[in-house]
Specification:
106 residues, 95% helix, single chain, mainly alpha, coiled coil, rod-shaped, 1 helix
Length: 106
């Protein structure tokens, strides 16, 4: 009978130890899950940040291209204005020269 009680005590003790180990395993699993979720959350933030950066870089490239186009257009117009000014200056000189020949000043 004593042997049986000792065996039952040992079984109960082993059962308690298994429950304790099971509880630790559950706690570890929960901790690992929380860590994995946190890492995934950080990765999502990082990916969102990279995506936002890529979108900004794309918009910046578009704006740069647009500004280059505007700069070329402005240069073209400045060249046209410069050419017109030269024409007007030449016309003014011709007119002044013709007026001087006739004795009329402008």
């Amino acid at each position: 009978m004593k042997l049986r009680e000792t065996a039952e005590d040992r079984c109960a003790s082993a059962d308690q130890e298994l429950k304790r180990i099971d509880s630790h395993i559950d706690l570890l699993y929960s901790t690992i899950s929380s860590i994995m979720y946190a890492i995934t959350g950080e990765e999502k933030k990082s990916l969102k940040s990279l995506l936002a950066k890529a979108e900004l870089e794309a918009r910046l490239a578009e704006e740069k291209q647009h500004l280059e186009h505007l700069e070329k257009e402005a240069r073209r117009r400045m060249d046209e204005v410069t050419a017109k000014l030269k024409e007007l200056e030449a016309l003014k000189q011709v007119t002044e020269s013709a007026g001087a020949k006739q004795g009329v000043g402008i």
